[in-house]
Amino acid sequence: MSWTDRFLEISIVVSLVAFLVAFALIVLRLVRGPTLPDRILSLDMLVTIAVGFIAVIAVRTEQSTYVDVAIALGLVGFLATVAFARYVINRGLNEEGEGGEAAVVEDGPATTNSTGDNAS
């Protein structure tokens, strides 16, 4: 076994241990997170850790199929984060009594006259 193979094996083991520690800390934040945005951020980080873990496994097994799975998981995780963020924003607007997006739609577009002044 050459020194490059040995270095790769040590790097893989260190990476997997680091991902395991990060995963445990993020699960702790998910459980203890005092607010909903903390929990959403921890879920996003869990997806990121899972993508990294899958990438390390792909290097170790030399299977490129794992990379495709990691990319798909990353895209799904991104969409989930955007959906959660939108939920939190709409929830915050509704709790403040501003009505969320429905109020914006009901107002309609602003109109301007030929001089550029608002016609309201």
Automatic annotation (TrEMBL):
GO cellular component: plasma membrane
Transmembrane regions: 6-28, 40-59, 65-89
UniProt GO MF annotations: sodium:proton antiporter activity
Pfam families: MrpF_PhaF
Homology family: Belongs to the CPA3 antiporters (TC 2.A.63) subunit F family.
Domain of life where this protein originates: Bacteria
Protein name (record): Cation:proton antiporter
Native source organism of the sequence: Kaustia mangrovi
Subcellular location: Cell membrane
Keywords recorded for this protein, A-Z: Cell membrane, Membrane, Transmembrane, Transmembrane helix, Transport
Comp. bias intervals (Polar residues): 110-120
Region (Disordered): 97-120
Topology with respect to the bilayer: Multi-pass membrane protein
